[in-house]
Write a structure and sequence with these properties.
Elements lengths: L7 H24 L5 H22 L10 H25 L5 H7 L3 H12 L7 H18 L9 H24 L6 H23 L8 H29 L1 H4 L2 H16 L6 H17 L13
Length: 303
């Protein structure tokens, strides 16, 4: 399907997608009130897998062909780097850092893709705009973590690094998705969620056991995480890319961190340090510079 100039429906879908993903970091913090980080990842993946695998079969896409070992290798890579690992890292990190912090780190994902694409995507060039944009965004990430805390080994710094690690996982996942053999994105995502669930559920049971007391507030957050930013968002993402193209889709990267800051402040009463806003300006500035006239691709970050 050839992408058309974005219309009102595309803009509404894009704004809704940014809202869904932006609220995911708030929801992770709420879910952590009564569930461990591995269990948060496992439950949201299980719910999302049930919904998306069912939807994929109902829509006639099913799962990727079982006979394609190379394709399923990419599905496994996506399961690890786009779902299981970053979800666990975000959950662990958000036990110690604000949800707004985690959301702002996600703005760095497209910037982290740049050096990876240069090495792993044939024909990808590092233009001067991309290099300067990457450096500017990297300075923003350092500002976000705290220049004086970079070498510290305390729990909060490690939690911050875990969130940055999650962003790095999403960047790796986008390269894996970009280099995968041709397959419908919903089938590909459904397969990835299924494998991620098979990875995350046993680990959660081994290290955290079966959750016994989940508050209604945390349960609501978990249901939202599974059905909203993990399942529904994938379907909306595919529709936007098919109708308006990946370049238009990349605009969501500017919305997610802003919504995460707004939700964190309004719902959780999180204070927004000046360093957050400075870091966000640097990262978004680097993102705008690096994406000037460029086409983005692959999966996009969700918390």
């Amino acid at each position: 399907m050839t992408a058309q100039p974005p219309g009102l429906a595309n803009w509404l879908q894009l704004c809704f997608l940014g809202l869904i993903w932006g609220a995911s970091f708030l929801s992770i913090t709420i879910a952590l009130e009564s569930v461990g980080p591995l269990s948060v990842a496992a439950i949201r993946l299980f719910l999302a897998a049930v919904v998306l695998v069912s939807a994929s079969f109902l829509l006639g896409y099913g799962l990727p062909a079982l006979g394609s070992k190379l394709l399923w290798l990419h599905v496994f890579g996506m399961a690890v780097f786009t779902n299981a690992l970053p979800f666990a890292l975000l959950g662990w990190g958000q036990q110690s850092v604000a949800s707004a912090f985690a959301g702002v780190t996600m703005a760095a994902v497209p910037l982290l893709v740049l050096p990876l694409a240069f090495f792993f995507i044939p024909g990808e060039r590092l233009t001067p705009f991309k290099v300067v944009g990457f450096v500017l965004g990297f300075l923003g990430v350092l500002t976000l973590i705290g220049w004086r805390d970079i070498l510290a080994a305390d729990g909060e710094t490690l939690a911050k690094l875990a969130c940055v690690g999650a962003a790095s996982c999403y960047a790796i996942g986008s390269i894996i998705t970009r280099t995968a053999p041709p397959v419908h994105p919903i089938a590909f995502s459904a397969g990835g969620l299924l494998l991620a669930t098979m990875i995350s559920v046993p680990l959660a049971l081994i290290f955290e056991g079966l959750p016994t007391e989940i508050s209604p507030r945390s349960a609501t957050a978990l249901i939202y995480l599974g059905l909203g930013p993990t399942a529904l968002a994938t379907i909306i993402l595919v529709r936007i890319i098919q109708s308006a193209g990946p370049s238009f889709m990349s605009l969501v990267n500017y919305q997610v961190p802003i919504w995460s800051v707004i939700f964190g402040a309004l719902v959780l009463g999180e204070m927004v340090p000046a360093s957050f806003l400075t870091a966000l300006a640097l990262i978004l500035g680097g993102l705008a510079l690096s994406q000037s006239g460029q086409r983005r691709y692959g999966r996009y970050p969700s918390g």
